[in-house]
Design goal:
By secondary structure, this protein is an alpha/beta fold. Among the domains are: 43-176, Leucine Dehydrogenase, chain A, domain 1 (Rossmann fold); 197-349, 3-Layer(aba) Sandwich (Rossmann fold), CATH 3.40.50.720. The protein has helices at residues 15-26, 34-39, 89-105, 126-140, 159-173, 197-213, 229-240, 263-273, 287-291, 330-338, 346-349, 352-366, 372-397, 401-420; strands at 45-54, 60-69, 77-84, 111-118, 149-153, 221-225, 244-250, 253-256, 283-285, 295-300, 317-321, 342-344. Strands 9-8-7-6-10-11-12 form a seven-stranded mixed beta sheet, with helices on both faces. Strands 1-2-4-3-5 form a five-stranded mixed beta sheet, sandwiched between helices. Strand 1 and strand 2 (60-69) form a beta hairpin. Helix 6 (197-213) crosses helix 7. The chain is globular, with a radius of gyration of 22 Å.
């Protein structure tokens, strides 16, 4: 007789279901009209395009792309474009909603957007990628523009891809429009300070958290999961503040030293060898072990859902600064909050990138560019002010920092809708 397995199968939530769950929980702490609450649960507009691309072998392949605008209440939409085999409309919807909240938290005059193409760029030549980018840009050109929707780099896209988007849009217009996209090369209207912006934002909110908690940064221990753009910049900028970097990791594994090490030397080592693993004077550890080290600051800057209900009890950091998007699950949030571990959420902690993208857009519009010192000073003011605002809401409502950030963001967007009114 065949045995029947009565165990409950846990169905993983989709990104959009996760975004709605966070939203529905946060709105409980606000007094917003029911119609506005329902309005913000849905994207304003969505576009799906299927388009041909000529490949190097002369064949033609059909690709699918998406672009979603979540809200335009506070201004034109802002959000990246990703190239990945697993891109879905559901994912793009969720990312667009999160971008709305991220922009609102730091007070930028933007709504949220996101885009993506279902493809594997690692299997495509540079010519094929250019062909795909230019055709995708043309297909979504009815949605993008410097006054309506400004794309940016995301997963598997970079300044070169942004240059192709800008050039394609400009060819259609008949003149150069650098403000149509951010994250461009400096020579085409890109901004100083953009490379370090997200990591710098992480450092700035960590410094503010230390002030509120009475922590001394001199010798404070830091562990960083993910040693890419965000993680490496976070590490060496925290090191510059007097912190001791005791562990970092990349996709191949991690390194640990109780004495600490210079993250800039690790970065040079990684560029030479392809990984941080094997850096002299350190011992090898796993990515999972990096998360569970006793430390003052933990900066998860790799993938989503790294801190879950399965390992949250073993987290021993005092402060978690989310450099990545969505590294902590909702169930883990509850556990960490009960353990008095401060979590600085992604929509605040890693908003430095979109903030400097806003600076780039402003510079392009006025055709006047700022020095890097000016960029960093402006970024510092915005990140510090935003942290203080979220901290205040958290204390006033006795809620965790993620919920406080969402409450503040949703309230700002809802107020913009109410003030503008419902047309017609």
């Amino acid at each position: 007789m065949r045995k029947v397995n009565h165990s409950v199968i846990k169905v993983q939530k989709t990104p959009y279901e996760m975004a709605l769950e966070q939203y529905d929980y946060a709105v409980q702490f606000l007094r917003i009209k029911r119609g506005i609450v329902e309005m913000l649960r849905h994207p304003k507009r969505e576009l799906t395009v299927n388009f041909p691309v000529k490949m190097d072998d002369g064949s033609v392949q059909i690709f699918t792309g998406h672009r979603v605008h979540h809200s335009t209440a506070r201004g034109p939409t802002k959000g990246g474009i990703r190239y990945h085999p697993d891109v879905t409309l559901d994912e793009v919807r969720a990312l667009a909603m999160w971008m709305t909240w991220k922009c609102a938290v730091v007070g930028l005059p933007f709504g949220g957007a996101k885009g993506g193409v279902v493809c594997d760029p690692k299997k495509m030549s540079i010519i094929e990628l250019e062909n795909l980018t230019r055709r995708y840009t043309t297909e979504i050109s009815i949605m993008v523009g410097p006054e309506s929707d400004i794309p940016a780099p995301d997963v598997n896209t970079n300044p070169q891809v942004m240059a192709w988007i800008m050039d394609t849009y400009s060819m259609h217009k008949g003149y150069s429009v650098p403000a149509v996209v951010t994250g461009k090369p400096i020579g085409l209207g890109g901004s100083q300070g953009r490379f370090e912006a997200t990591g710098r934002g992480c450092m700035l909110v960590a410094v503010e958290a230390a002030k509120e908690l009475g922590m001394n940064l001199q010798g404070a221990t830091v562990a960083v999961q993910g040693f890419g753009n965000v993680g490496s910049a976070s590490a060496y900028l925290m090191h510059d503040q007097g912190c001791k970097i005791i562990a970092v990791s990349d996709s191949q594994g991690g390194i640990y030293s109780a004495k600490g090490f210079d993250p800039r030397k690790v970065l040079r080592f990684k560029k030479e060898t392809g990984t941080v693993v094997g850096f002299p004077g350190t011992e090898a550890i796993t990515n999972e072990e990096v998360l569970e080290l006793p430390c003052d600051f933990l900066i998860p800057s790799a993938l989503e859902e790294q801190i879950t209900a399965n390992n949250a009890d073993r987290i021993r950091a005092k402060v978690i600064v989310e450099g990545a998007n969505g590294p902590t699950t909702r169930d883990a949030d509850k556990i960490l909050y009960n353990k008095d571990i401060l979590v600085i959420p992604d929509i605040l902690a890693n908003a430095g990138g979109v903030t400097v993208s806003y600076f780039e857009w402003v510079q392009d519009l006025q055709a006047f560019f700022w020095e890097e010192v000016d960029i960093n000073e402006r970024l510092a003011r915005i990140m510090k002010r935003s942290f203080v605002d979220v901290w205040r809401v958290s204390k006033e409502k006795k809620i965790d920092m993620r919920t406080a950030a969402l409450v503040m963001a949703i309230d700002r967007v809802a107020n913009a809708i109410m003030t503008r009114g419902i047309y017609p």
